Amino acid sequence: MTVISLTGVHRTHGAGDATVHALRGVDFSVPPGELVAVMGPSGSGKSTLLNLAGGLDSPTRGTVEVEGVVLGGLSRRALARLRRRSIGYVFQDFNLIPSLTAAENVALPLELDGMSVRKARGTAVESLSEVGIEDLADRFPDDMSGGQQQRVAIARAVVGRRRLILADEPTGALDSQTGEAVLKLLRSRCDNGAAGVLVTHDARHAGWADRVIFLRDGSIVDASAPLPDADSLLEAGR
Ligand SMILES: Nc1ncnc2c1ncn2[C@@H]1O[C@H](COP(=O)(O)OP(=O)(O)OP(=O)(O)O)[C@@H](O)[C@H]1O
């Protein structure tokens, strides 16, 4: 069974002359164990695709399924539970809760799922140590650098046994060495059975993926293009 699958997915914004077709009939799926990189020029629909895959947005047409469950058929509560349990999401702007420490931010989804505070903290600190910042467990986001906040966001996305990890430019605020370490972590989660989707502008980062898809104007233009084509496609869209 695929972990995530989008079938005939369209997403439009606005109406009439102002209609923007963010996605136009996308078919896309990822089985367990696979990491897929999504590339394409700015505005081509990459974030929209990720938001739909993560249940943060709904398609105008078509279906999105996570582990065989059609997201459109779920109540808000059931969707929130599925997102908490099955989906780890690294947002471009981190989305950390400022009033919670790093460890509390990472532990929150586990606690909401009924894990004891103590066990959730232990699991959260383990996850922070996987991104090299366990010593910052008790620090608040505002007292951290952008790169440190990004690592907390990544620790939160990979904590527990999430089956689907979605990452929107997860290395933007990181130096290249830390960025590589984060991609390695994503890779190892996929090697252990998760499905991963990585939005990136960087062909070197896409090199960590098993497969690269290219979006242009809301459509997948060539799902099998070899990596060297990435730069020329990106250039063409500028
Ligand atoms: N809420 C919205 N309302 C109107 N238009 C939107 C909205 N969200 C996205 N769009 C439009 O949909 C298209 C796809 O946007 P999206 O953010 O998915 O692209 P992207 O490939 O992620 O871009 P970037 O690389 O710059 O992040 C763009 O034309 C964008 O302006």
From TrEMBL:
UniProt cross-references to InterPro entries, sorted A to Z: AAA+_ATPase, ABC_transporter-like_ATP-bd, ABC_transporter-like_CS, ABC_transpr_LolD-like, MacB-like_ATP-bd, P-loop_NTPase
Keywords for the protein's UniProt record, in alphabetical order: ATP-binding, Nucleotide-binding, Transport
Keyword match Transport: yes
Record-linked SMART domains: AAA (SM00382)
The species this protein was found in: Stackebrandtia albiflava
Any one GO molecular function term: ATP binding
Domain ABC transporter span(s) in chain numbering: 4-236
This protein's GO CC annotations: membrane protein complex; plasma membrane
Cited Gene3D superfamilies: P-loop containing nucleotide triphosphate hydrolases
Protein name stated in the entry: Putative ABC transport system ATP-binding protein
